[in-house]
Write a structure and sequence with these properties.
globular, 14-stranded antiparallel beta barrel, mainly beta, single chain, 16 strands
């Protein structure tokens, strides 16, 4: 029984490490991570500049202090270059720590986007825009090999792990070299009133597929990732509306779909206060078993003039729920948007 338990733990740790290397970290509140989702989202907000911070804690119910933790932040601002057209700049950083090996990824980048007005007028709430964006940045991966044990260190006779024994692995580098990274994306949106909109976009990330191997002769590449996302806002009354959205992400052999909606209630005051609440489904591919539901996400957002505070919780629905009692991920997002000084503002959807 002890041997089976040890082998299961070894398999599970290895699975976590492989998963961390195979794909980028994912946020359940993808609509609250604009620059991470698509570089064409740079500058798409109603204000002078925007600051975004995100935090995600995954599998702490199983791994405790070695859970999957992701922290991201971004800043973007916009300048008018022509009547109805804008140029926007942004910067973003991300830090991801995953599992027992403390496999970590650090990324930072600078981005630019061009917002081209296709229809409507800057004097009306009806508008239509096409945005193209691109990012260039650097990244580096690392790991704490000393936190792991390998089969050569397992004492079968006594069913114990001997950390002092040789691992039989040539693990000399705890960090990869810095790698260059390129991302690009497009976004289109149309507004039909104060609370009616539709948008669709997509991006390609890690276009250059940089080398991320820990060894000098490694040919391991970071697979290119593609993202497709869409959504909108449909009003029911002057105070109540629905914001459905979907994000489809593919990278290497991994694919995930997050879809759902938030209801939004606003007081319609000059100091607008709004509350959002909703539910989302996360579907992912499970090796050779096809697509299956991985989690149900419960979300709530408080809008207070310039601030948006979002909370969400992933309830695990896959077979992993037997181990974590359905306790998946906790996520927090905070967005600050500084008001526009010009009387000619850019009208954007609510995401």
């Amino acid at each position: 029984m002890k041997r089976r338990l040890v082998l299961f733990c070894l398999f599970f740790v290895g699975l976590l490490v492989q998963k961390a290397e195979a794909q980028d970290p994912r946020f359940s509140q993808f609509y609250a991570t604009p620059v991470q989702l698509n570089p064409a989202m740079i500058g798409v907000y109603e204000g002078q500049f925007r600051v975004v911070a995100n935090y995600r804690d995954l599998y702490s119910s199983i791994l405790g202090g070695r859970a999957f933790r992701t922290i991201a932040a971004s800043f973007d601002m916009r300048y008018q270059i022509d009547r109805g057209d804008y140029l926007a700049f942004g910067a973003s950083v991300l830090r991801d720590d995953a599992g027992i090996s403390n496999f970590n990824r650090t990324q930072a980048g600078l981005g630019i986007s061009v917002l081209k007005q296709l229809g409507g007028s800057r004097y009306r709430t009806s508008d239509q825009y096409l945005i193209a964006g691109a990012q260039i940045g650097f990244g580096q991966n690392g790991a704490d090999w000393g936190a792991l044990w390998f089969s050569e260190q397992y004492d079968l006779e006594n069913a114990v792990i001997d950390q002092g024994a040789a691992s039989g692995e040539n693990l000399m580098n705890n960090q990869t070299d810095l790698y260059l990274d390129f991302n690009a994306g497009l976004l289109w949106y149309a507004l039909f009133g104060d609370d009616a909109s539709v948008y669709a976009g997509g991006s390609l990330q890690h276009i250059n597929q940089p080398s991320i191997g820990f060894f000098d002769d490694s040919e391991e590449k970071l697979p290119m990732k593609w993202v497709g996302h869409a959504g909108g806002q449909a009003p029911f009354t002057d105070n109540l509306s629905l914001l459905p959205a979907v994000a489809v992400i593919g990278q290497g052999q991994s694919m995930s779909i997050t879809a759902g909606a938030n209801f939004r209630f606003t007081n319609r005051d000059w100091r607008e206060l709004a509350i959002r609440a909703g539910a989302w489904a996360h579907v992912t591919n499970e090796l050779d078993n096809g697509m299956a539901m991985d989690a149900v996400i419960i979300s709530a957002i408080l809008e207070m003039e310039r601030w948006n505070l979002g909370l969400s919780y992933d309830v695990t629905t896959s077979t992993l729920s037997r181990a974590n009692n359905s306790r998946g991920a906790f996520e927090l997002s905070l967005i600050y948007t500084h008001p526009e000084k010009s009387r000619y503002k850019v009208n954007c959807p609510n995401f």
